[in-house]
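Database export, one record per block. Field names are fixed; values are copied verbatim from the stored entry.
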Amino acid sequence: MSIAQFRNLALGLGLSTLLSTCAFAQAATAPAPGAAAAPTGPVPTKIGVVNIQQAISECAEGKKEIDALQQKFSPKQVELKGLNDDLENMKKQYQAQAAKLSDDEKSRQAKTIDTKQKSLQRTYEDAQAEFQQAEQDVINRIGVKMVGVLEKYANANGFAVVLDVSNPQTSPVLWATQGTVITKELVEAYDKANPAGATSPAGAARPATSPARPAATPARPAIASPTPKKP
């Protein structure tokens, strides 16, 4: 949905890794508790590589959910941009007039700017937290079903292990031939198993990532608040 502005509110799933590589390997090979022993036969030896984050964002249901998040959070993006623009205009006016203002007036305006800035930062952080939680709910909901589809696909196609390469910092895979990458096949298998997710809202624009910061990230006023004079 990923979640770079309200990060553009173009959500492109900067998705967190759903399950560890170990979990995917286990899901693809370990029998469920109480399940009948697997029939004897050739032991699977194929190793597959999948980008589970990409699969979640590219399956029909994932696209539909991302579009829905985009529509839900777009008004908040507009609101944050308006607040940020007002603050930037206030800071420009302060800078232009500072030389003509008394110390008391400088202090008053600088304090007002600082207060608005802190308020904008809190509003942004609250909106970002709300978005990230909604995004994570989507990831978890689709991810659980995705792992089930992956298990069936791996068993049906003779894979002994499937490694997730969503996160380059934690993935043990440095290189893999194209033939071992099964992300596209997983998306196709998921869409086939979940056809209800294929219908996206008409005319909905695909987002790019999770909320981005407002056009100009709230920072302290360009001119620091003057220190009040002692009486």
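Remark 1: The chain has a mean pLDDT of 75.
Remark 2: The two ends are 55 Å apart (CA to CA).
End of record.
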